Amino acid sequence: xxxxxxxxxxxxxxxxxxxxxxxxxxxxLIGPQAGAPNFxxxxxxxxPGGFTPYHTHAWEHEVYILSGHxxxxxxxxxxxxxxxxxxxxxxxxxxxxxxxxxxxxxxxCMVPLDGEP
Length: 117
Description:
Layout: E1 13-15, E2 22-30, E3 39-51, E4 61-67, E5 69-74, E6 77-82, E7 86-89, E8 95-98, E9 105-112
Antiparallel strand pairs: 1-2, 2-3, 3-9, 4-7, 4-9, 5-6, 5-8
């Protein structure tokens, strides 16, 4: 059966320890709770001045920038990102998303279910 929903009804979880992550909210739009067998789709919002952790893990990411602009940081440098851009993060690649702007940065991030327990 096809599942539909609206992101406005999905609970957001805030992440902010002020040191490794700042001003990040995550919504799991599709994942284990929807019965998805392979992948999870998450929407992240990074507040102005915020950033995700600089980290690595065994799975890949596919990211699509929905709105705002920011920076995708990796082991080999930084790349600016804007609405409409996509980002592929390979497994084991260090990565971080930062928002140096004055407006929220919002993106979809798809990962295998191992990446969304």
